[in-house]
Amino acid sequence: MAKDKDVIRIERESVVPILKPKLIMHLAGLIEHGSDRAEFLKLCKRVEYTIRAWYLLQFEDLMQLYSLFDPAHGGQRLQQQNLSSEDTDVLEQNFLTYLFQVMEKSNFKIVTDEEIEVAQSGQYLLNLPIKVDESKLDRRLLQSYFSKHPHENLPEFSDKYIIFRRGIGSDETTDYFIMEKLDIIISRIWACFLRVTRLQRIFTRKTSKRSTDPKKNDEITPDADHDDLVVERKRLENELSMRNLFGKITIQEPTFDRMIVVYRRASTKKKTERGIYVKHFKNIPMADMELVLPEKKNPSLTPMDWVKFLVSVVLGLVTLVSSLEMPKADIWVVIAILTGLIGYCAKIYFTFQQNMAAYQNLITQSMYDKQLDSGRGTLLHLCDDVIQQEVKEVILSFFILMEQGKATIQDLDHQCEALIREEFNEECNFDVVDAVQKLEKLGVVARDTIGRIYCVGLKRANEIIGTTTEELVLKAKQEAITA
To answer: What is residue 243's three-state secondary structure?
Structure first.
């Protein structure tokens, strides 16, 4: 009988997963006439230059505001501005407003409690409970923002920090997992012991709050349908069998392709914190999402580990005393009991030490390998990302209208998604409404009497947009070189 697959179902995102140069050159290659191909390439450049100009002022405001709240040098700039506390509050709320707008345009979504529950329903490489030291985090900044800008499905920690995520991938690890296998075997023996001694009821009652079936919740969105993205989880406890007990095992975990964390540290009696931290991570396994948490506490043995430890010691000592009180105490039985007791305690200790070493390694890796950037670098990346996505959406929509003729919004949406699927072998929930709005703003599409959308010719589209400043600069440079 085949095992049920442990899968996570996620709503497809609106990100066009194709590099812009590849998209443009491939679409240009589908155009038959060379003159039309040249006009199309010119149009693509003008679309990008124009969209970049539209966003320029907004992005400049964002970067100027962040310069006041940069944790490294923002404090000095704020002092130079000689602003009142109330004025500073207004500016930091303006910054967050711009930031959240850019995040939305970049198709980032706020991580919800349900997503975190799904992510933490299994383990991957991180085997220690990681908690945030909430006393080190400010509550006023985000609380004030969300009171003025309500959002649905905010996580319970949204007053202290916020986590954005975008893109879904998969990560595989192949290893012997010696200590992890030993831990699973001992845990299964422990569970069997609890059932036999009927102590399971006590522990089940204590842990019932977290005993929900993760497979029932392995859906990131409640409105999932057949078009959703399905990613399989391969956990060590499910893959372990007698056949691979001493061999290598491959485990697999879905990943968030990009994650961004926003928070502020708590103020102290000596210093009022105004810095806003914006940290950008890549390829974070869902089960190891705790890696991106701010102000993490140093992990320690869990309460359950201590309960197991103390119960084992008590039971071992009771059994040992009972054996010694017998008229003819068997020295080998006493040795066996002591060996088992010491071995189990040593197992708890060494497992914890190994997990601590793995935790430190993962933290180091997240800092050097998985952290893309922070602060200003992250914001610049986001701004460019917004432009790239908008340009790709506009070019795709215009190309479909140019090739297929008039179309309704729904038809255009389906045709754009079909083109991405057939020509690039990628899936995307295309954001057609935003693309059409941009095309209308550019003045290169219109609607007929029944609401269908149609575009002007390529040459006319280039004339409507007109020569851009970037083109004039490039022309001047070429003339200077040839002069």
So the answer is: coil
